[in-house]
Amino acid sequence: MSDPAVFDADLMQGWEMTVDRLITHAERWHGTREVVTRLADGRISRTTWAATAHRARQVTAALIAQGIAPGTRIGTLAMNSARHVEVWYGVMGHGAVCHTLNPRLFDDQLIYMINHADDRWIFVDPVFRPLMERLLPHCPGVAKVIYLGDPGEAGALSGAAVDYEALIAGADPASARWGQFSERDPAALCYTSGTTGNPKGVQYSHRSQLLHTLISGQKDFLGLSSRDTLLSVVPMFHVNAWGLPFIAAAAGSKLVLPGARLDGAAVYELLETEAVTFTAAVPTVWQLLLDFLTVNQLQLTTLKRVAIGGSACTEALIRGFRDGHGVEVLHAWGMTEMSPIGTISGPLPPSLGTPDEATRMAYNLKQGRVPFGVDMKITSDDGVDQPHDGAAPGHIKVAGPSILQRYFRDDKPAVDAEGYFDTGDIGTIDPHGYLQITDRSKDLIKSGGEWISSVEIENIASGHPKALLAAVIAIPHPKWRERPLLVIQLRPGETATAEEMLAFLKGKIATWWIPDGVQFIEAMPLGATGKLDKKVLRARYATTAA
């Protein structure tokens, strides 16, 4: 690309879009806004954007002093905290690559990721020290482990281990010169969850992350401002917390980081004590919160909006927040390969006129509209573009500046000849531009040659007053090839019959969509990012007869 120093005088400035510009903006213009962390022992730690930027520069200075070159992968094994944010910006500001590792994964998966990425350092929360000690003998490329606790909290350190505060204590932030590289250089690395075989790496450029921040910040999208207080419930190891710590810095929002405790009581406490106005996470987190509020007869007093993504949001969840607490639910869709946000169901467009309640809810349940910066189309199995009529389903394909071109260390492009990435989702787009996911291609149930949407059945079944969580999977059938099986986790203290659950579905879906059976389960299996893990259910009920 062109050298900014020799940009033509009659064009714009060669202002490289690097991630460090986000926190520099927050430091300079919103420096007194708080960054709040709940620590592992429950204490609340308070700092500011200005102090966070200062300490991030100390991280950069420590990397430089230790000879870490730009482009080096640096891992993190940590929950959401101010120290984790410091490491993020310090690593990326240096031009190194921040690789967030998910501590909820199996050891073998983490070992694969660390070695595949060739992580040289790993910053670790002290609570994950036993996990790190199990992994380290299998990761010969890791030269240093830095524990992100208070001074001395990590205990007696040995071998490659270093205390975080000791590492940065003598580092001179003046030696950290951020952004001395191309916006197209890598900034961060995440690995996909839920794949078969080895996880796949998605490496984000500085340009892609900054543009994703601008895309997400649009008014009809997340639309955060300096007046907002953001609770970033989404873990920083889940697609960079959906970019929320970037968006908060760009907007100058107060940022609240919850640590590891995400139960209903803990989330409610932070929402109220920190006067949170906006938050985001997967549906299971918000279902636990609503249950806690209902049981304890509590109200949300400051929260205005909540973004729900990762899996489909149910009508019961939307009504629970809207009708019970006056909170607007923004139903979002995206994926690791998209940085991750792709669509969101923000304010209804003028083309819908003044919709009645049923129409409004139908649109709230859709995954939303495409923002500027994301291009989308749906195609048939043979690649023919499908009409945007809300009826014709197709494979959802996307393109844009924050969307994957190829997987990390994979020579084969991940896009088609026209530059579109196949998301693996099936859906429709209606004349108003709304996307509706009908299923993952791997989760669709083909019964007698016709498709059944597991997502649609799950959304309805989840609305049963006794159901806490619902999942629908395919089971083999001698005549129809596949038939749906409904799996239900009941609310605590509830009992129900299969007949009761199936009767609830009648009249709401086609008769031939009605599942052939119901299985009640004590606890629904959840994946490493809090989403329902259908792989476990399919394996468990593989021999169930329909």
Task: Supply the key terms.
eight-stranded mixed β-sheet; seven-stranded mixed β-sheet; 27% helix; alpha/beta; GMP Synthetase, Chain A, domain 3; Rossmann fold; 23% strand; globular; 546 residues
List the helices and strands and how they pair.
Layout: H1 20-29, E1 34-38, E2 44-48, H2 49-65, E3 73-77, H3 82-94, E4 97-100, H4 107-117, E5 121-124, H5 129-135, E6 144-147, E7 161-163, H6 164-169, E8 186-191, E9 201-205, H7 206-216, E10 229-232, H8 244-251, E11 254-257, H9 264-273, E12 278-281, H10 283-296, E13 305-308, H11 315-325, E14 328-334, E15 341-344, H12 357-365, E16 368-369, E17 375-379, E18 394-399, E19 421-429, E20 434-440, E21 445-447, E22 450-452, H13 454-461, E23 467-477, E24 481-490, H14 498-505, E25 517-520, H15 534-540
For the biggest sheet, the summary is: 8 strands, mixed
| CATH topology label of one domain | Rossmann fold
CATH superfamily of one domain: ANL, N-terminal domain
Count of runs of 4 or more consecutive helical residues: 15
CATH class of one domain: Alpha Beta
Number of strands: 25
Cα-based radius of gyration, to the nearest Å: 24 Å
Structure classification: alpha/beta
Low-pLDDT ranges: none
Adjacency order of strands in the biggest sheet: 2-1-11-10-12-13-14-15
Share in β-strands? 15-25%
CATH architecture classification name of one domain: 3-Layer(aba) Sandwich
Q: Overall 3D geometry? A: globular
Average pLDDT metric: 92
Q: What percent of the residues sit in helical stretches (DSSP H or I)?
A: 25-40%
Q: How far apart lie the N and C ends?
A: 59 Å
